[in-house]
Amino acid sequence: MRMSKQTTASKPGNPCAHGSVVTRELERNWRRWTRNAIALAKQRQEMRGTDGVAVTMTSDGLMAKLHAANYRCALSGVEFTQDSFGRFGTNIPCVDRIDLDGPYSESNTRVVCRGVNSLRQPAVMAS
Q1: pTM of the model
Q2: Residue 122 is part of a domain; what is its CATH number?
Q3: Of 68, 50, 51, 77, which is closest to residue 106 (Cα–Cα)?
Q4: In what helix (H) or strand (E) does residue 83 lie, and over which residues does it extend?
Q5: What is the total count of domains within the chain?
Q6: What is the rounded distance in angstroms from the CA atom of residue 55 to the CA atom of residue 34?
Q7: What residues pair up with 95 in beta bridges, in sequence order?
Q8: Predicted confidence band at 8 (pLDDT cuts at 50, 70, 90)?
Q9: Residue 8 belongs to what domain range?
Q10: Which class for 79: exposed (0-12), middle (13-18), buried (19 or more C-beta within 10 A)?
Q11: Which of 32, 42, 36, 29 is nearest to 83 (CA)?
């Protein structure tokens, strides 16, 4: 079963009691994703040593970006989807730095599909 953030039951204002359970579960899954995304970014930058950049983005900041984009890729508009276990489908979200040399900060990040982000990498762009 696939569920997106905007399933009928989870749309704001829907009086369905089940909808509030779905909404809370999806919120937890998205919070978990934001915490993991931040932890992975920090881990990657620590491995880069002195070449690493600062990671100052927050879970609340990423949640605000997701909500503002209606849980869609900031570049392609494709909806991020999760199954009933909180796993992402083919439209896996990832954090993209707008300025590739800049930090992972609130003002320099956006949430995009992994495939879109991979197209923005320097090695791909140089070919």
Answers
A1: 0.75
A2: 3.30.40
A3: 68
A4: strand 81-83
A5: 1
A6: 13
A7: 111
A8: very low
A9: 2-126
A10: middle
A11: 29
